[in-house]
Specification:
Length: 210
């Protein structure tokens, strides 16, 4: 496959590029500053999310587009939902699928009750989590025929190698036998590229955790 990764120099984006390359997929790295890209053997296309430039040229030739953006670096969290909407429109009628690196904050600890509303939710991540929740609303309310999958990691996403089997859930927040919600970055990337290859969860949000 040919996979375009938007935000390829970011923490999660870099892991996605590595995993896709390890499986011999062609990778198009879409970044604001190509000079920051250290991955070898990938095509590079420059794009600034703050511009109103057309997405079509930078995703040309891709089978799947994976967006790994959070608004954290710029502090512009409104950009997250705006980008989701723009991508859904831009990819309509192209046959390209859109996979989205979502947050854990919109997972439900009870029916209709998001994790981000819990008193224990870290304040420093709240704006980002709310922004990802708004992006999820955009996906679910879209009239575009673009096929999408919103992939929420566990509450704790951390650097590290694969730790073996992980679980795929839906909207409900879930934990392991020790009451922990966690996933290594490597295993999250594996789950994302699995979905890119298989397309099992079309127009759905899924959660990934041990």
């Amino acid at each position: 496959m040919k996979i375009a990764v938007l935000g390829a120099t970011g923490w999660v984006g870099s892991a996605l590029v590595t995993e896709a390359k390890a499986r011999d997929h062609e990778v198009i790295a879409i970044v604001r500053d190509p000079a920051k890209l250290t991955a070898k053997g990938v095509s590079t296309r420059a794009y600034d999310l703050h511009s109103n430039g057309d997405f079509a040229p930078v995703v040309e030739g891709a089978d799947v587009v994976i967006a790994a953006i959070s608004g954290r670096a710029s502090g512009n969290h409104e950009l997250v939902a705006q980008t989701a909407e723009r991508l859904l429109v831009a990819l309509a009628d192209t046959g390209k699928r859109l996979l989205w690196v979502g947050g854990a904050g919109s997972l439900e600890v009870a029916p209709g009750v998001a994790l981000v509303t819990s008193p224990e939710f870290p304040a420093e991540f709240k704006d980002e989590a709310i922004a990802q929740g708004e992006a999820l609303k955009v996906f679910r309310g879209s009239k575009s025929n673009t096929q999408w999958t919103f992939v929420s990691p566990a509450a704790v996403l951390y650097p590290g190698d694969s730790e073996g089997d992980f679980r795929i859930g839906g909207d409900a927040f879930f934990t392991n036998s020790d009451g922990e919600s966690k996933i290594s970055l490597t295993d999250y990337a594996k789950a994302m590229i699995d979905e890119a290859q298989r397309g099992e969860y079309i127009n759905q949000r899924i959660g990934v955790a041990y």
